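Researcher: Here's a chain I'd like modeled. Treat it as a single chain, no partners, no ligands.
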Amino acid sequence: MSDMVLAARDAEDLDVLSACLQDAVAKLGDLVFLKKQHRFAGLFNRFKWEAGQNVRVRSGLCFNGVMAVRSRNLKLGASEAVVELLTVRFVPKGEGDPAGTVELVFAGNGAILLDVECLDAALSDGGGEWAARGRPRHDDEKGR
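Model: Modeled as a single isolated chain. Structure tokens:
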């Protein structure tokens, strides 16, 4: 199977990207804000929901046009700490405004908030896949 490449230019595109990234894990040290380039980038081990089997792949995520980055409930100095991504969403500044905030929401109520000029994101798989230890489960699936 070929490596996936996706782009997001609006909230609907971002929903697709978010679904692909659900349950991806990353080390906090692999999430960086490149201030001079107005870019936020991260490396994730993404669960390949679309594969139909329990596999993960290394994936790169980047957002362009990032003006500022904030965080909530994350220990940013703990570069080896592992976080699990639950969803990615876009909140526009106002009706029809291309600027807004991208929220990367992690398990444990952590979040990274990106203030962006407009939505400009890309997700790309960049390597071979490997067997995952299991399939991620969510609270609404337990007991099934």
